[in-house]
From TrEMBL, chains A, B:
SUPFAM superfamilies: Nudix (SSF55811), Winged helix' DNA-binding domain (SSF46785)
UniProt feature coiled coil, ranges: none
Keyword Endoplasmic reticulum: no
Protein's name in the database: NUDIX domain-containing protein
Family (UniProt): Belongs to the Nudix hydrolase family.
Source species of the chain: Mucilaginibacter jinjuensis
Domain Nudix hydrolase: 6-140
Keywords: Hydrolase
Keyword Hydrolase: yes
Residues spanning the membrane: none
Lineage: Bacteria, Pseudomonadati, Bacteroidota, Sphingobacteriia, Sphingobacteriales
Length: 228, 228
């Protein structure tokens, strides 16, 4: 056993944002210190001795971006020697999916800037953060196939096409729309209302849908098999 | 940012063993140092500055138990302050499922003893290792429902009931046997041979089965939806 271990522990977060207008985006900060000064990076930083890992990532997010996110899932720990040019840093990473409009972004002392970037238009990222982001996106895609998603992201009532758009944006591929709708209705976490969609143009307006929160959270706990 | 971070990083492994005779077991070591001296614990230890996390867990397993396991999956990082009474230690944990007969156990300097324990007859464990073990078992159960399992664990040719036994032992519940067989055959990772099972007693001997390695590894990569 080594007498002195010279390894530091950090937490970093991949916060995905979704709006039907912008699609899938990621919350990034611009670094104002070396190394990778002026590069965009995932928000994060060193864990303090007296805080849990979850407290650490929430504090870092608040400090660097101004956002309060009270639930993130642990993704993976990245620990390759050399991933930080200064010294050995192991990063315990977290990810989550939120509604970006809910936040007012505010870069603090640790960051020069903070912004949402569309997942298709990412800048060069510092360290191995692109690898972390890719792993988080893969995990999120996977999660959508065994847990219902969208309750916190869509309006209270919405046309069914909004849910399709969400799934296609996160999965980054087309889906079998008929099969998708059949499965969603069968799972029961979405309900059809009698209200009609307001249409801008011509066409027959469809009914609006809303989530059934009880069923939604039950299925989130139990898991589903959502082959789409 | 704290000037000095007083946190150490360890790796710990939950190595599950399976044989059709013994069912599911876990590899544990008996601690020969304080705290929890003489308690059983998961094998593991501090990460060295110059090794990757995967190298660290393989080295610790070799040192403490004598076993060489070249593939483990990362499970989760446990980092609650106070989980180690000495100082703050964050444990990055790994898990895997192996065939115990393949190993000759040998406790080394760091451990007083090493043994396989049946999952139903576990001793009291040191630290939060019971929590880690439970999380690993949950992950393993889950993994069995989206990836084929068993190629490295069963004999080259085996009666179908051996695969059922494996799944029931890991899932720790009965399965719908007819539905299970139908799905396995449909997935195609198992093939029926024309050889018959040697029977001790009376009854009609069934055909033996074998894995189709190509299909098995393909499905392991692609994932399956194995609702059983």
């Amino acid at each position: 056993m080594p007498a002195i271990q010279n390894i530091k522990v950090a937490v970093d977060a991949v916060v995905f944002g979704y709006t039907s207008k912008e699609g899938l985006s990621v919350l990034l900060i611009k670094r104002n210190i070396k190394p990778f000064k002026d590069s965009w990076a995932l928000p994060g930083g060193l864990v303090r001795d007296d805080e849990s890992l979850e407290e650490a990532i929430q504090r870092e997010l608040k400090e660097e971006t101004g956002v309060n996110i009270n639930y993130l899932e642990q993704l993976y720990s990245f620990g390759k020697p050399g991933r930080d040019p200064r010294n050995r840093v192991i990063s315990i990473t977290y990810y989550g999916l939120v509604k970006p409009d809910a936040f007012e972004l505010q870069a603090d002392t640790d960051a020069a800037d903070v912004a949402w970037f569309n997942i298709k238009k990412l800048p060069q990222l510092a360290f191995d953060h692109h690898e972390i982001l890719t792993a988080a996106h893969e995990r999120l895609k996977n999660k959508m196939l065994y847990q219902p998603v969208g309750f916190e992201l869509l309006e209270e009532k919405f046309p069914f096409s909004e849910l399709e758009k969400l799934y296609m944006a996160v999965l980054d591929r087309p889906i079998d729309r008929r099969n998708f709708k059949k499965k969603v209705i069968k799972f029961g976490f979405l309900e059809e209302t009698t209200e009609k969609q307001a249409l801008d143009g011509a066409g027959r307006p469809g009914n609006l849908f809303k989530f059934n929160p009880q069923k939604y959270y039950q299925l989130q706990k139990e898991g589903i098999n959502f082959e789409i």
